[in-house]
# Entry
Amino acid sequence: TIIARGVEVAPELWDELRDIMRTVPAAKHVINLDGAVVNGSVSLIEIEELGQAYFRGTRFEGTFDATGVSFTKPITFSSAQFRDGLDLTRASFFADCTFLEADFFGDATFSEVNFSSGASFESATFLGPVDLSGITALGLVSFNYAEVRNSLDARRSRFKGGVRWRRTLFANVAPLADDHTMFKEARLLRPSVDPSSAPSGSFDVGVPE
# Structure
């Protein structure tokens, strides 16, 4: 068990925590960094498998790289802040994961991620490019009420358990997908509209095919 709630995690401390996670079997992981501030870049690549983990309200000041990592138990990044990019390329989630109300300030890369269960990005904010290309999801994936203020690529993705975009706001850039009907409940804000002054009805325009 690793508990570092609400503390400031320097790069040296993160390296120590990563070594513990790498040597302890994932089945025994209980990691809680709720509210922590993690300075420097974070890499989980050497861990390969990560068990139960809580990152609620955690602020990652550097990049977060979990390329190819397997998340074997539920994991939450609710209200987390990724200040300099997130890369989960080819990661696998074998239990529910949530990014509820998370803020992504840089690139958010989920290319070729496998979701064996559900995933929630509800009310999340994406300020940088979002890459959802090649995702395979067996459970429901929800982006309800999220804000996407840069490009989003969902081509070649298979949402077998369904995907929801209810009241998702796409600001200025229409998303890319093989089938745009999935975005029928989303909103596209035209570049000429100022979101701070426009009435809510101005957002209720379907994303064009």
Q: What stands out?
A: The helical segments are 11-23. The first helix runs from residue 11 to 23. The CA atoms of residues 1 and 30 lie 5 Å apart.
